Amino acid sequence: MPSRGRLQFVRYLALLTELGLSVVVPTLLGALAGRWLDDRLGSAPLLLVLGLLLGLAGGARNAYGLVKRLMDKEDQ
Known about the structure:
Helix content: over 70%
Mean pLDDT: 94
Number of domains: 1
Distance between the termini: 27 Å
Low-confidence stretches: none
Shape: elongated
């Protein structure tokens, strides 16, 4: 049976991984979608930057929701 400290380490590692992915994935998707649209419409780099900013905003929203949910869970 794993020790209590090791189990807590694994939980924190999983939380950090989820937090990182919740920011990185929307940011990359926004940037890729912006670049694809720039290639189609010939508006480079306008839509790339817009997609990147929207992706970052979405990632920040995801991270905020994750931390808020965790804090609410800790309060109970």
